[in-house]
Amino acid sequence: MAKHNLDARGLLCPMPVIRAQNAIADLPQGDVLEVVCTDPGAAHDIPAWCRVHGHSILEIKQKKDELVVIIEVGEANA
């Protein structure tokens, strides 16, 4: 399992989800992607996208004006 980071700060919907989708497409199952974004809508959009595509949300945390979403790549990428 490897950890990867995605900086989606300053991007508005739907770009944080699209960037996460593109990053995850290249990752093997079990890897972890940490997405840092400033769009408050990403707190709902990224988990919804993950549910549809078989990935797991490990944690969502707020750090000042930033949202950090930690995703485990699911078997959809296997």
Question: What is the SS-derived class?
Answer: alpha+beta
The fourth-level CATH homologous superfamily is TusA-like domain
Unreliable sequence segments: none
Rg is 11 Å
Total number of beta strands:
4
**Helix fraction by DSSP (H/I, runs of at least 4):** 25-40%
Oligomeric organization of the protein chains = single chain
**CATH topology group:** Translation Initiation Factor IF3
**Topology pattern, helix = H, strand = E:** EHEHEE
DSSP strand (E) fraction?
25-35%
In DSSP terms (H or I, runs of 4 or more residues), the helix count works out at 2
Strand order of the largest sheet: 1-2-4-3
Q: Which second-level CATH architecture applies?
A: 2-Layer Sandwich
Largest sheet: 4 strands, mixed
User: What's the domain count?
Assistant: 1
CATH class division: Alpha Beta
Name the overall outline. Answer: globular
Mean pLDDT: 96
Distance between the ends: 13 Å
Fold topology:
Blueprint lengths: L2 E6 L6 H11 L6 E6 L4 H12 L2 E8 L2 E7 L6
Parallel strand pairs: 1-2
Antiparallel strand pairs: 2-4, 3-4
Please provide a written account of the structure.
- The chain is built from two helices and four strands.
- The chain is α+β, with helices and mostly antiparallel strands.
- It has a four-stranded mixed β-sheet with strand order 1-2-4-3, with helices on one face.
